[in-house]
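[Meeting: bench + compute handoff]

Bench side (C.D.) handed over the final construct sequence. Compute side (W.E.) agreed to return the predicted structure before the next meeting so the bench team could plan truncations. Sequence as handed over:
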Amino acid sequence: MKTTLTSLRAIPLTASFAEIYGGDDRIPEEIRRPASHFQSIPRIGQYTTLVLAESSDGALGIGECFGLPTPYAATEMINRVISPTLTGAALSDPSAMLANLYRYFFALGHTKGPGMEAMSGVDIALWDLLARRAGKPLANYLGAEVKPIPTYVSPVPFLPTPERSAIAAKSLAEGFGALKLKVGRSASEDIPFIAAVREAIGPNRKLMLDANCGYSLEEALVLVREIRELDITWLEEPLPPDDVKDLRRLSDLSDIPLAGGENEFTPQAMANLLDEANIAIVQPNISRAGGISGLMAIGEIAQARGASVAPHGVGAGVVLAATLHTAAAMQAFQCFEINRLPNPLRDDLFASPKLDQNGNALPPEGNGHGVVFDNAAIQRFSDIG
């Protein structure tokens, strides 16, 4: 008798900054507005959508969808569209199970946003379910060894002075060989911050910059010219991802490699970014860009083009665990982001990743991606049953 998918449901989770800090008036400004894209619409909390997939033999798989700016859109997509379609289907390769739904979403124009995030979370849950049923850690199920994964720590958010950024960077970088600084105010404003952080962490640690699409081409060109002596590992999202021609021009004129891709949703979109914008490092988020299936496909695409993959690390515990296991099996993998902005959905609900003495992250132990479902803990952050 074939094993089938008997239940698929999504649960939106919220952790407000007001609750974390004991009141709205106590939230630090650098938490509300940590980066250039939060200056006009500040953050008020952490969000994610949890996905639970159960099989007819009683196994449970856990997935996660990207939560910003709200967890409810992906929740609705799963509970009202994807679940009724998949429930009762025979378990098989997740890409095959989701193929018709991808065609459906694409035909309706939903090639970005909550529909793709919902599909990504479901893909993660299905892979986790299959690995748990097989009695294997996810990395093993994908044909790889469970091993330490190179990381970098992020971010030093927008702080009011270069001196404060330097102090924050020195503290944050402890135990890590690489660190990422948020930039994107303007070239003239950002250069003193970059120089102060470089001096604070010393010459032996790698320094990445993340502009969150904050620059114009002219500003980005000024920046890369003025900081070429500061040994920058990459400049991330200097321009909006749709500005392909300007990204290509910047890439051609910059000595600093460009990175991007956290806002792309499909392997083909990532391939277009590599081919048309000449990005050197792609940064898919597993909970947006097709889940485990998408991440593996993006790894193959990057390897074929001589590019590398440094997955985006923003999310709750499932994103971290699933990405670490998948990274062990990915082509062209470079490093993974360990985000340190306060997030109870990551640190309280699920265990933070353990690091070895070299700052590498250890994939969680156990079958599947290793995240353990705790209904009582989840209910603390959920407002639906």
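W.E. noted at the follow-up: The chain has two domains: 5-136, 151-362. C.D. will use this when planning the next construct.
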